[in-house]
Fold each of these.
Amino acid sequence: MALSESDAIHFLRRVGFTAPRGKINAYKGLSRTAAVNKALDFSASKPLNVPNLTYTNQWGGFEDMIDWWYRRMVKSPTPLEEKLTLFWHNHFACSQEKVHDIQAMWAQQKIFRNKGLGNFETLLWNVSKSSAMLLYIDNESNRKGEVQENFGRELMELHTVGVGEYTEADVVAMSRAWTGHNVVGWNAAKGFTDSTYRFYPEHHDTGQKTLFGKRQNWDARDTITELVNGSKQRATARHVARKMWKWFAHDHPSNALVNELATTFINSNMNCKALLRAILLHNDFWAPVSRNALIRNPVELTVAFLKVTGVPLSDPHLWWRTLPMGMTLFEPPNVAGWGENEYWISTATSSGRANFFEGYMWSPPKVHGLFTGIENGSVAAGVQRIFDTFEIWSPTNATRARFESWFRTAKNNHSWFIKHDAIQVGPLCPDFQVI
């Protein structure tokens, strides 16, 4: 089935951040399979240019890495790579605020990119033993006789099988299996904590453990295999499939749909690319229920705004500019990551979005220059110019009527201000924030 214009717009917004006219034309007429293959082709991905990460200046490195990722998301010729990396960053949530090692956060970012389309067991193992994860969920202090259960619990609840698929006894056994998988620790000579992963055999519990009804001498690596390719495979496949569907399609997948995707995932040997492909090719992804069914989270909203307005990427400080919106890269609110859709509908987050756009109403000149002379044309032409700029290709009748009323009033009372107001009014309308 060939993609219509509305199909192309829907697809581009989901596999990327915007749907510019040129890309709409490039995808329109393609088959679904051809469109998905095109989006999943990351061969044009640019090399990772390491941001300025200075160990003695953690927060400087933190801010620089945030700016680096925003620049990459805006400029990337393979936006699905960035969207998928953002998904894994949320699925395997870790925060620099607690990890306090920007090098460890950078190392985890590279894992998401290098392993995120491959085998899930490989991805899970590499993320689980990464310094960022060990520090964030407290496994750096997990030792025989001093078992720390946070890591074992979250590994199951959040990263693999989900709630209801394990017992408290499984939490204890899982945690015991992960004893000794720690970090180097305090370096007295250098005066800082070395967060490099290290396995300490003397701290590992080598005793028999009963996990998921199986009694044996479980080690960390064994548990990962069991979770992904053992007795808990279907539960893990369902959990990951459900979360990925909600990220790319809509918020309410049926159990039948989740089971179907899980089966595809399992039959592909738990290959993440195969799962994502199945989601993007599924009839329900293209159905009306998936259209305009997601609310752009603050990162997606920011990237879309930067792309359509052409804000100079030499203008940094996106950390503090985006802070009021409630979603700071590399700093999720807790181990569960950020919420989705309705999570972002609140007085506080709405105010944060308005303040973010307001910050560009006067500077840089290139942005409000987009609408130079807009007040001199007709109401209909001015409103259409705003819609076209913000890629609002099919505004609702209510949105158009509201914009025309605002434009007409502004033109009669303070027309000189319209070119500034448009920078905030355009992206605040529901038609820009819902995709």
Amino acid sequence: MANTNIKRRKSIKLRIRKVVNGTAETPRISVFRSNKAIYAQMIDDLKGVTLVAVSSRDKELAELKGTKIEIAAAVGKKLAEKASAAGITKAKFDRNGYLYHGRVKALADGAREGGIQF
């Protein structure tokens, strides 16, 4: 059962990546969600470089208490904070094959609240 879910997510991921490409001006926000943590990074696909990366396992965010959705929103806000420090205001959102629901949506909303436009 799990193998088919992995294949399904991979095919969706490849379909999304055909359309969503990041540049230095508008990097791609890639989201990875595990059972315990959530990770987000802004990527310049032209150079193949990660510009900004944030995780719920970072020192400041690991101390937060709350639901996984609340922590994901905090990760999105922290990502926006680091991006604005790097001079990034616009981005493209790559949900990485996950449904735009729950923690993925909370991270995107937190990034929007922090000032990133996508």
Amino acid sequence: MEYNKTLDVSGLCCAEPILRITQALKTVASGDVLLVTADKASMRKDVPAYCNQTTHALIHQQESQGKLQFWIRKR
């Protein structure tokens, strides 16, 4: 799946991953896709909830080799 920018939030706790996602999305154009990689199980709920509360769209998510990946399209 295509993306325009990547962000690795592995090892970060609490609100820090969501804050970093917010900052990263500010640096891309509307319609661009941010690929976020994480290692915390809580992100399975946090990223979809974040996207539901913002105008951004979670277009795909998957888990591979212990890493979670989320493709977020900026609106």
Amino acid sequence: MKSEQISNFLQERIDARDFPSAVYLVAEKGEIVFQDALGFAVVEPEKIAARNDTIYDLASLTKVLVTGLLCAKLIESGEISLSDKVCKFSAFFSTKTKSQITIQNLLTHTSGFSAWKPLYLNCNSNFLSDLVNVISEFPNENSPNSVVTYSDLNFITLRFVLAEIYGKSIDEIARKEIFEPLNLKDTFYNPPKELQKRIAASEKGNEFEKQTCIEQSYDVSKYEWRDYQIWGEVHDGNCFFMNGISGHAGLFSTAEETFKIAQQFLASQTILLKPETCALFRTNFTKGLNEARSMAFQLAETPDSTASKSLAPDSFGHLGFTGTSLWIEPETERIFILLTNRTHARELPFVNINATRRRFHELAAQHLDEKR
């Protein structure tokens, strides 16, 4: 069942060329209340309409749906703790400037690392140990007393920690620990080629990242940049360099299967965690800092959060660069999912859709309140 107001609003944003498609899902107490698909998931090289089961590149939602969830499982089993130093798992972090960085720092983006670096221009190989070695040598560009909204480097490092503990790659870990127990069929890293026409397309080439590298004074002349339509493979350049598998990006899924993973963060609905573990996702670990952060998530009490004022302050959520978002309100057990592909068939600069995300949450919360 769709919400006319939400669907009409999102169609307006499609008509305004913010993004070519949108799929949304709003749930309460484990039941889907509203959902709809609008626009075209693929515009080039052919037109394919979005459907409720369209598969999207979730981008940084990977940080919470895979890495954050796996870290919670390890904390629960006692194999790691938030206070563990990263140097316990990697000798590269034993230096004077990195030895005090903890698992909590990585999960809350308070490690001091910058938001992003083009590892494909900094590393000679894509071996995970080589990548983490290079990351450990980057200078601390931010104060440990501040939150960096998007620090991919933190979650690439967490991918290394997970691999050290499990002895497997994160895609294998996620399949065994998350996807198979939840019986997910359309959630994976590196989607099968035969599913391409069910996948929302992304940017043509990696022009956005290329321009960002130029702005940061990198020599981009020797790198083999993608110049084709990215469709069915990960958009993020660092994750692509890592063969489509990482802790910060790489996950593809549908709205309904994203919802099934999102339920694992709610104490009354989870089957992968102990209910008490779910408190970690609504706990503010960065009180007094510029952003309110729980474990892997941002909290709605953060100023100008995309949750909007309609969601409770301890609601937690995350965004993805490709145009995806997930927010969860634990007290009401409400889940809000909005998947778009704002990087597809759009010229640079891509539209900032945070105002659209806020309005989506306002409309959805209002409709749920009216149905009570």
